[in-house]
Write a structure and sequence with these properties.
The complex is a heterodimer. Chain A has 11 helices and no strands. By secondary structure, chain A is mainly α. In chain A, helix 3 runs antiparallel to helix 5. The radius of gyration of chain A is 19 Å and the shape is globular. Helices cover 33% and strands 28% of the residues of chain B. Chain B is elongated, with a radius of gyration of 23 Å. Chain B is an alpha/beta fold. Chain B is built from 10 helices and 14 strands. Chain B folds into 2 domains: 212 residues, Rossmann fold (3-Layer(aba) Sandwich); 60 residues, Alpha-Beta Plaits (2-Layer Sandwich). The two termini of chain B are 30 Å apart. In chain B, helix 8 crosses helix 9. Chains A and B meet through helix 1 and helix 4 of A and helix 2 and helix 3 of B.
């Protein structure tokens, strides 16, 4: 399966946009730094947490687009048949794409963390250990997004439709969940997108969400993994049966 | 080498293939002919594992395409429908991608492969900048990358100029004879198939109508040419001798086996000057028309030279 992952790398790294995204992270991080310095907005820890929050949002959108293209482009260029004619099983092909999407997203995530951490030295102040911990606790979100986007990739042929449905499902449901937290938290807790930021169980400022929903880390972890398994199972079932002709 | 036995396939309510059977031996170029929608591509999709048949078996070098999928598909190189590539990758990157799809394959000599298909010095270009003919050549290079035992080419001459078609023909023939590769070529270009194939199958409405040798003598006729003023007398003499003969243009065509040539030559030269004597075999197109005419059907076939 390693050679299949290598193939995904060849395709991704050959596209200009794969390099542009890294440039975009640098530009945004520097812009926030310049604005913060000029207006004296940040201490070191707040620059780090605010900038990683902005860049994580950007990474979320980039992850959806990139993951949608993983299967969407195979249909667009009619190359899916060559993958399926290979001696590898469909399951291997699917897991190679999933693994690669997770690897690339983690690569970008750690690039953002290292970049913003390095730039945070431009500001004075303490850098608490909990800030890095809270950042890492948000990682489950992109992984879930990848699995969900791949699921939609198997339902729709057009990259635009895949992106549209993923964004709609993710952002619309997150907004609804955010509203429900205020007056119907017992319903909000059954929305999976409310469980993708596990820092809410560690960060004092965010624990009110967990308190309102009455959930703990174990509940969130089981709930998210159950959704991941359903999406993975559904994806594999569709991919095994679907005729790409 | 490639064996298709009683393969049937239904898609929705439509019976696409019905009891399709044929074999392609090592070193043989086998033409798979039929009009659009006859079932050629469906058969090829089944052979290459893209579709699963409802019944029947397909074996490649002894491996069943369904039960031993991985082993069977490792033996096949194929272009199905049109050669599809990643346009933003170079020709070489596309070949590396194809190499990575074969488990455990060692790095091939890409440049030698490029020379073989006439793409020398072109592998560094992005495929998006390739002409259709170059893509066809790259598709053939990709199909040959892992030295398959069976090569399947679906309309391989699409987009090639006459010189390219002739080169490809020569190359495929030498590959079949020198390396013993079994080659299945699907096409609706009858004149091309006639020049390249050893045998052929005609499929129509999902049914194999005929499997024949291209150079078979069935329907062959002896053709003679005599002085125009003697033609009527010669024709009469042949009819009297119980030969089935008729005048077509300036020739007399005789429905008789090749062994009758000496007797005919003796009879004709006894009463007239014989300018020419030869065997006129049926073209693939004539054979095809004969097979399909039996069904009272007509088909729009393309002709190419």
């Amino acid at each position: 399966m390693l050679s299949l992952i290598q193939n995904e790398w060849i395709k991704w790294w050959s596209m200009k946009k794969s390099k542009i995204v890294f440039g975009l992270y640098i530009v945004v991080a520097l812009a926030v730094l310049a604005i913060g310095k000029y207006n004296d907005l940040f201490a070191r820890d707040s620059y780090f947490s605010d900038t990683t929050l902005i860049l994580s949002g950007l990474l979320g959108i980039i992850t959806i687009v990139f993951t949608a293209e993983l299967i969407g482009n195979e249909l667009r260029y009619d190359t899916m048949k060559h993958l399926l004619m290979s001696p590898y099983t469909r399951m291997s092909i699917y897991f190679a794409k999933l693994s690669f999407a997770i690897i690339v997203t983690l690569l970008q995530f750690f690039f953002i963390v290292v970049l913003v951490f390095a730039l945070s030295f431009a500001f004075s102040g303490q850098f608490g250990d909990h800030i890095m911990r809270d950042t890492l606790m948000q990682l489950v979100g992109p992984v879930f997004t990848i699995i969900m986007t791949l699921f939609f990739s198997l339902l729709f042929r057009s990259v635009g439709m895949i992106i549209g449905f993923t964004v709609l499902a993710q952002f619309f449901t997150s907004i609804v969940g955010g509203i429900l937290i205020g007056f119907k938290p017992e319903i909000a807790k059954w929305i999976v997108f409310m469980h993708l930021d596990w820092s809410m169980y560690f960060d004092d400022q965010a624990t009110f969400i967990a308190d309102r929903m009455g959930t703990n880390l174990t509940f969130s972890a089981i709930f998210v993994f159950a959704h991941m398994i359903v999406l993975l199972g559904g994806s594999l079932l569709i991919f095994q049966k679907k005729s790409y002709i | 080498m490639l064996k298709i036995e009683r393969v049937s396939k239904r898609l929705g309510k439509e019976q696409i293939l019905k009891d399709v059977s044929f074999e392609v031996s090592p070193g043989e170029v086998f033409g798979f002919l039929g009009p659009n929608g006859a079932g050629k591509t469906t058969t090829i999709r089944i052979i290459t594992g893209l579709l699963e048949q409802d019944s029947g078996t397909v074996t490649v070098n002894g491996y069943d395409v369904v039960a031993e999928r991985s082993k069977a598909l490792t033996q096949i190189g194929a272009i199905v429908e049109n050669p599809a590539f990643y346009p933003y990758l170079t020709g070489r990157q596309n070949l590396v991608h194809a190499k990575n799809l074969i488990p455990g394959m060692v790095e091939p000599d890409y440049d030698a492969l490029a020379r073989l298909v006439g793409l020398e010095g072109k592998l560094g270009k992005k495929v998006g900048e390739y002409s259709l003919g170059m893509k066809q050549r790259l598709g053939i290079a990709r199909a040959l990358l892992h030295e398959p035992k069976v090569l399947i080419l679906d309309e391989p001459t699409n987009g090639l100029d006459p010189a390219g078609i002739a080169e490809l023909r020569e190359y495929l023939r030498s590959m079949a004879s020198e390396q013993g590769i079994a080659i299945l070529i699907s096409s609706h270009m009858l004149s091309e198939m006639e020049q390249i194939s050893d045998r052929y199958a005609i499929i129509d409405h999902g049914v194999i109508k005929s499997v024949e040798s291209v150079r078979n003598d069935a329907g062959a006729r002896i053709s003679i040419r005599v002085a125009p003023d003697a033609a009527a007398e010669v024709l009469e003499m042949l009819l009297r001798a119980n030969y089935q003969a008729q005048t077509v243009a300036n020739n007399i065509l005789i429905d008789a086996p090749e062994e009758s040539c000496p007797d005919i030559a003796r009879r004709v030269t006894a009463i007239a000057d014989l300018f020419e004597l030869g065997i006129k075999r049926m073209t693939l197109e004539e054979q095809f028309m004969q097979v399909t005419k039996k069904e009272g059907e007509s088909h729009a076939f393309a002709h190419s030279k």
